[in-house]
Predict the structure.
Amino acid sequence: METGLLLQYLIVALAVLASAWVVLKKQFPGTVRKARGALALGLLRSGRPGWRQSLGRRIAPPASGGGGACGGCDSCGPTPPKAH
């Protein structure tokens, strides 16, 4: 296989993965948050090398302060008043 064709396939694969990640975050924020939490917990176990623990801290979802029902993106601010 030519190097140029392989490079093209890699670029297309990265674009597809990035697109799928954006769709997952927009459509299923609770599922993405749970998956990130589960992956981070596996990396943060005691006895793991330091680089794995630092990676786990970076992957871990941010703490939600609100305790909202959706478990989503924490961007649910107050709703603006309706115009009559």
